[in-house]
Amino acid sequence: MNFTQIELGRFGAQEYVAVVTLMRPDKMNALTKIMETELREAFARLDRDDSVRVIVLTGNGRAFCAGMDIDELEVLPPDDISEMAWMRAYDMNRRADYQSRYSYFPGVRKPIISAINGAAAGLGLVLALYSDMRFASETAVFSTAFAKRGLIAEHGIAWLLPRVVGPGHAADLLLSSRKVSAQEALSMGLVERLFAPDTLLDQTLKYAEDLALNVSPRSIKVIKQQLGESPFQTLTESITQANREMFLSIQSDDFKEGVAHFMERRPARFSGR
């Protein structure tokens, strides 16, 4: 892979934590179709790898991702946006909602944490929003960018952004395309945590390692699925799913280990089964 790098075990968590880095720093990690394909393949590979329990997505250099490369955008054929290759099923056992060009992040069974090291604009912000959590550098800057380019709210962001920051903030960010500081992003709930630029990745990896080592991988997989399904469910449907999953979890090896390590006052040794 030329523009997307996968690094395992960077923080020493026995390769349970994978770091996926966008590697086009001279272009502020602006996306190309090659990068899109590489990123999708990287996530598919990590999803299949049972040794990987948490994924961290970040950018190399001073930006997280500045959106689609403008050179490619200018020559993009009008029908590219609906090309079937981008709508192929990421996994036929997942919701169709999570099988499109960028919405496949929630279909990945491991938590995805975006470590936003710099500018996240346009599609860069879309990638961050489809992640399960967003940790950011105190110097990061955010922008939807679309309206200032004569574009619209792309790739489901009009559905997703109000659920993250609320309808008013979403309308403000989408209509104005203004730049938002990391501090304002934290205050509106666009990101969960802020860190100094030189500690962002280490702090994100510490959190990821805690998930990887101290929480049941099976529980994480099921809870992520529950969170992904809930926006499309009634309360009754959500409760029914939870009851079914609770019955199965009580029979799992991870439940037995969860009780054992608590009673024996020792570190957990979850298997994910």
UniProtKB/TrEMBL annotation:
InterPro entries: ClpP/crotonase-like_dom_sf, ECH/Chromodomain_protein, Enoyl-CoA_hydra/iso
Pfam families in the record: ECH_1
CDD domains named in the record: crotonase-like
NCBIfam families hit by this protein: PRK06210.1
Family from the record: Belongs to the enoyl-CoA hydratase/isomerase family.
Name of protein: Enoyl-CoA hydratase/isomerase family protein
Organism lineage: Bacteria, Pseudomonadati, Pseudomonadota, Gammaproteobacteria, Pseudomonadales
